[in-house]
Amino acid sequence: MVIYRRIRLVLHVCAWIPLAVLAFDAATANLTINPIQAAEQRTGDTAITFLILSLACTPLHLVYGAPWLMKLSRPLGLYAFLYAAVHVSIFIGIDYGFDFTLLLQELAQKPYIIVGATCLLILSALALTSFDRAKLILRKRWKQLHRLVYLAGLLAVLHFGWASKGNLFSFSGDIFRPLLAGALVLTLLIIRLPPVRRWLIQRR
Ligand code: HEM
Q1: Distance between CA atoms of residues 84 and 79, nearest Å
Q2: Whose CA is nearest to atom 32 of ligand 1?
């Protein structure tokens, strides 16, 4: 399928741009006054963006009936995992210098980190079983396991909202981006509900 191959190529090229720009900005000391925080925020934002794009593949296929959209879900999900892994590596390695005692204290004080870690755990399991061989070995359980991607999406949004410097109750600070991410994930989840799904397929 020519269109799929072209879009996949564009995706693979574009997916490395945020990491390359981050490396360039870090090397040229262009990462704001708080470079570690900026690096954590950029990689976190990129991870959640890829996760939402991956979640959007099936709903978009339901609306437009283009099977190649489904095939993009795997590379998009793997890039979400890659950026989440870089995000966490910066947090553990650079921010906390692998000081696990300090990290445990942080875990107790900042529950949003536990939420992020649970999300990462799910993304890791999905990445490890994303290959065709794993599909053959796990069979029915593969589908059940990969449904957890929606839970990962919800956890990522919760982590995003909690980590952002905004207050939902007084509508102040950075609340727009986490709310937008939450609205997107919820919409994509609703589209997957059987009655909505059937309605979309009939309309196609
Ligand atoms: C063990 C796992 C994780 C840890 C320790 C962690 C840590 C952090 C920290 C410390 C921040 C706050 C940065 C700051 O503003 O000072 C943050 C923000 C964020 N994280 Fe994570 N995170 C984890 C997993 C994830 C995962 C799996 C995702 C997405 C798939 C993610 C997405 C984000 C996003 C979107 C933000 C907000 C960035 C912004 O303010 O623009 N994180 N994370």
Answers
A1: 8
A2: 44
